[in-house]
């Protein structure tokens, strides 16, 4: 057997995370034990499952448990499990590297944040699992043997950037992690983790629901002066989801959530559900208080675990929760599924589909409930997860209305208060028929776009939609409560015309006069800008800008056109309509100049500049920015 001790370097990201742990920025150091117990529990789950699916696996599953062994003299605490264990390569791959998505982003944010509390918070959200042992230890030893393998692996590190691995012959099946404790320092929240009282307290607080026995040998008084050693089981092992909600304390739910999610923060809301009858199941779900760093990463794991009759079957059961609710964590325990159920079967199982439907409805109705019972928590939820939930408007047509009901959007009404569609409809002005929205990159671009002028003038509220997903969902929603959703940059805004009474009469006459005055200019501009726009006409929507670009209802909106292009789908460019403000000096000046000297080549440049300005004002991009800049600079030079 190869007994050489090899020294390896931690991967760079792992080294950085370890350094953070060694210099412990996290004040609650007790949680290291929760993390090690959590890993041990997962390893026991995995072994049971492996044994269920392969009964030939040469592994002992007769007494699966976790043992805590404290040695006061040597100042060590060992967390031992007889679970699945790790091969040598797994030890190197899993412990020596951090493969978690979001690591680079986390490290960048940590680097930027000079504030200790903010750093704690970040690291807590990320969850560092095994590495948290280095908050309390100056050396950590791990001895492990994979179930079914002959020999084991010993791993050791003092957290300084390198670790050693060696092969060992006589390792028991499973994993034992021994932390060599730093001296206790109560001021630094570093307690004596060999003290049985402390250990009992931590297990009770953080790991009571773990479904495997957590055992400890403890000395008990025996007779007058002697003591005897006794094995205690420290946790009650009760599956939390099987207990009636009224009997479970919030803290117990919170600790369970942390075990499941590796989040170090309490959840925002707990959702429990029980179905009885022909198909029984229990579900305990959580809405996190914060979006994980990898919310938008492709390989982010979804957080619902599937159990069958209390037996863990799989993590990340995507069949139970749609992607737009991928941040929901929890457990679903079904009574009537086979323990051998595979992912392929899950995908087609009708009962799973029914469960999923019900879980989704329950999550959405819980959020809806929060909107009235606790608006502040609802707001936190929406700030964190709204961008993802909105994907459901497109991907879950059955629940489109329910998702729209819990959505809120920035609007022109109030810069700080988002609005729900219901509230929008309730405060619509007299005469307003439709719900108006504008999509784009930022609130300020949208608010200052020329398209908004008519709405400002009328005092109509406009939804300001700035998330990429907004461009998509607005295309799939026709109406809400009988009100059409309309973009402000469409040619036909549906705005009521001011045609009533004497003022209306005057306005109509004035427009007719303008139409005939401007006819020659408009037809000349149509020719000049034929490559860019499909029509040029007068506008009644502009108050202060000279021009803007609008589209027809059936045209692809420019934002979507850009998105498709970015995805490599080339199509013919979608031409829009240039609308001119007949009251603006630039437009009236151009009309005059055109009437006097139609052949002047400088006029063609003015037309180009006018079109470019309209594009810029809505936040769009110019086809030839350098040419635009040159034309503008020439003009400016002449004014000096
Ligand atoms: N006791 C153990 N038995 C078997 N494998 C283990 C054990 N402890 C850790 N591992 C393996 O090492 C991996 C990394 O553990 P670590 O605690 O760093 O991260 P994690 O549990 O995956 O997630 P988190 O960092 O969020 O806690 C685990 O996913 C598991 O595969």
UniProtKB/TrEMBL annotation:
Q: Which UniProt keywords apply?
A: ATP-binding, Chaperone, Cytoplasm, Nucleotide-binding, Stress response
Positions the record marks as coiled coil are: none
Q: Where is the composition biased (Basic and acidic residues)?
A: 504-515
Q: Does the keyword Nucleotidyltransferase apply?
A: no
Segment C: which positions?
563-640
Q: Where is this region: Disordered?
A: 484-515
- Give the primary localization class: cytoplasm
Does the keyword section mention Chaperone?
yes
Superkingdom of source: Bacteria
* Domain Histidine kinase/HSP90-like ATPase, first and last residues per copy: 28-185
Positions of the region A?
1-343
Location of this chain's protein in the cell: Cytoplasm
Tell me how this protein assembles: Homodimer.
Instruction: Spell out the family assignment given in the record's similarity comment.
Output: Belongs to the heat shock protein 90 family.
Task: Summarize the protein's role.
Answer: Molecular chaperone. Has ATPase activity.
NCBIfam families found in the cross-reference section = PRK05218.1
Q: Which named protein is this?
A: Chaperone protein HtpG
State the organism's lineage: Bacteria, Bacillati, Actinomycetota, Actinomycetes, Kitasatosporales
